[in-house]
């Protein structure tokens, strides 16, 4: 019998609609007339309110400080008054949708083409490998550092945090910049330039900045792009800068709190936890990232799997002890990481699990390691405290087609002594084996 809780229910008519306005469409924006029809409240920037047909007698709020506008919108929704919020481009991309949802509101969203998508389109370049960051209303440094680190970055700018300021901060980096001003208007201009030249210019707001470390053979197609005198100057620098940089849609995103966290960052039983010094190497060897699946077998506190999750990987943690499984769930929740926990003894508990890209074996004997090798993950990382287990583990992995290397880690931590002296307190040495499938 079908679960009644899964029965489809009709969706109630939206009382809050967010409409993205594309400058090219303006009042003819598809869906705009329908959204405005019968609206009792329309909220938007002055330029948007001036260009759309607000119904006669409809209340309006001109956006300035956001908090009073959010309160007015919430009251309208509570009273059942249909409300429309006007925004630029795609309001779900660094736009007002996030703030509305944070206020407990669930809008219907009618997006237009985002300014980022439009800028890349004007440049004639794909952007599935680009990071999108914002310098609008926030510290410029994170956006600037993204431009310094990654080969393709789109920056949503603001007065005082735009192409001139970012260009000044990129002097010394081999980058070419594409500045898209007043997109979708009669004043639209797309310019390709160097960081130094961008720093010396005055740019119109609003504008979007594309920062690229690549050859200029996919250069912009905007009116100024082919004639801008700085285009040729960036070709050689861009080619050398972009050649060795990663080219995918997964820019580096290390956790804000770092990794190899201290043992105090996790609940554990009787110090049954992979020590930070060992964990640092193990996580490095596992190569976690967005798009990869890591198994953490004999997970204990879950620290290794959780730190792989902090670096973007999907994680399955396996432990035979129900108390350990509860600890893993608690630690994962504390670190805001989604870890799938499987309670059961390996290797039997591994049956039916999705195929991993990398596996950490922190517990179990040769049978567990053999079962892991049979699944043929790209990388296997094993920690062993008992020296007599190292040889058999190396032999097993090599027989399964893995190239194996290993290292013994023996850390000594600073510890205070009476009288202000300091000693070194040794931790138990651990052998870390890494198998890479050949």
Automatic annotation (TrEMBL):
<keyword id="KW-0489">Methyltransferase</keyword>
<dbReference type="InterPro" id="IPR000878">
    <property type="entry name" value="4pyrrol_Mease"/>
</dbReference>
<dbReference type="GO" id="GO:0032259">
    <property type="term" value="P:methylation"/>
</dbReference>
<dbReference type="InterPro" id="IPR035996">
    <property type="entry name" value="4pyrrol_Methylase_sf"/>
</dbReference>
<dbReference type="Pfam" id="PF00590">
    <property type="entry name" value="TP_methylase"/>
</dbReference>
<keyword id="KW-0808">Transferase</keyword>
<dbReference type="GO" id="GO:0008276">
    <property type="term" value="F:protein methyltransferase activity"/>
</dbReference>
<keyword id="KW-0169">Cobalamin biosynthesis</keyword>
<feature type="region of interest" description="Disordered">
    <location>
        <begin position="214"/>
        <end position="256"/>
    </location>
</feature>
<dbReference type="InterPro" id="IPR029063">
    <property type="entry name" value="SAM-dependent_MTases_sf"/>
</dbReference>
<feature type="domain" description="Tetrapyrrole methylase">
    <location>
        <begin position="34"/>
        <end position="197"/>
    </location>
</feature>
<comment type="pathway">
    <text>Cofactor biosynthesis; adenosylcobalamin biosynthesis.</text>
</comment>
<dbReference type="InterPro" id="IPR014008">
    <property type="entry name" value="Cbl_synth_MTase_CbiT"/>
</dbReference>
<dbReference type="InterPro" id="IPR012818">
    <property type="entry name" value="CbiE"/>
</dbReference>
<dbReference type="InterPro" id="IPR014776">
    <property type="entry name" value="4pyrrole_Mease_sub2"/>
</dbReference>
<dbReference type="InterPro" id="IPR006365">
    <property type="entry name" value="Cbl_synth_CobL"/>
</dbReference>
<dbReference type="InterPro" id="IPR050714">
    <property type="entry name" value="Cobalamin_biosynth_MTase"/>
</dbReference>
<dbReference type="InterPro" id="IPR014777">
    <property type="entry name" value="4pyrrole_Mease_sub1"/>
</dbReference>
<dbReference type="GO" id="GO:0009236">
    <property type="term" value="P:cobalamin biosynthetic process"/>
</dbReference>
<protein>
    <submittedName>
        <fullName>Precorrin-6Y C5,15-methyltransferase (Decarboxylating)</fullName>
    </submittedName>
</protein>
<keyword id="KW-0949">S-adenosyl-L-methionine</keyword>
<feature type="compositionally biased region" description="Low complexity">
    <location>
        <begin position="218"/>
        <end position="244"/>
    </location>
</feature>
């Amino acid at each position: 019998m079908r679960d009644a809780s899964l029965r489809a229910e009709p969706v109630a008519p939206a009382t809050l609609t967010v409409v993205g306005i594309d400058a090219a469409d303006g009042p003819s924006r598809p869906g705009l007339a329908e959204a405005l029809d019968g609206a009792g409240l329309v909220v938007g920037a002055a330029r948007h309110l001036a260009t759309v047909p607000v119904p006669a007698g409809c209340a309006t709020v001109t956006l300035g400080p956001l908090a009073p506008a959010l309160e007015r919108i919430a009251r309208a929704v509570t009273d059942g008054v249909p409300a429309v919020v006007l925004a630029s481009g795609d309001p779900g991309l660094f736009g007002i949708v996030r703030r509305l949802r944070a206020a407990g509101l669930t809008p219907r969203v009618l997006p237009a083409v985002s300014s980022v998508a439009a800028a890349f389109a004007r440049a004639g370049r794909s952007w599935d490998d680009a990071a999108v960051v914002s310098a609008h209303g926030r510290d410029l440094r994170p956006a600037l550092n993204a431009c310094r680190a990654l080969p393709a970055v789109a920056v949503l700018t603001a007065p005082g945090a735009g192409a001139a300021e970012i260009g000044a901060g990129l002097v010394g980096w081999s980058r070419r910049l594409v500045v898209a001003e007043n997109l979708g208007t009669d004043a639209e201009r797309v310019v390709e330039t160097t960081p130094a030249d961008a720093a010396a210019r005055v740019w119109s707001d609003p504008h979007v900045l594309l920062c690229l470390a690549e050859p200029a053979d996919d250069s912009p197609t905007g009116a100024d792009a082919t004639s801008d005198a700085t285009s040729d100057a960036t070709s050689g620098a861009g080619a050398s800068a972009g050649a060795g940089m990663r080219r995918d849609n997964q820019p580096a995103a290390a956790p804000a709190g770092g990794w190899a966290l201290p043992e105090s960052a996790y609940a554990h039983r009787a110090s049954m936890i992979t020590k930070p010094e060992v964990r640092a190497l193990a996580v490095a060897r596992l190569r976690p990232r967005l798009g990869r699946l890591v198994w953490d077998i004999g997970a204990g506190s879950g620290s290794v799997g959780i730190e792989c999750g902090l670096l973007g990987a999907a994680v399955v943690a396996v432990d035979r002890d129900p108390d350990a499984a509860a600890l893993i769930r608690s630690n994962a929740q504390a670190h805001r990481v989604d870890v799938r926990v499987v309670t059961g003894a390996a290797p039997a508990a591994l049956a039916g699990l999705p195929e991993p890209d990398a596996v950490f074996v922190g517990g179990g004997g040769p049978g567990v390691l053999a079962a892991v090798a049979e699944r043929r993950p790209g990388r296997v990382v094993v920690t062993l405290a008992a020296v007599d287990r190292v040889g058999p583990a190396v032999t097993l992995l090599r027989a399964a087609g893995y190239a194996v290397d290993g290292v013994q880690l023996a850390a000594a931590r600073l510890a205070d002594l009476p009288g202000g002296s300091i000693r070194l307190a040794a931790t138990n040495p651990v052998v870390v084996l890494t198998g890479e499938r050949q």
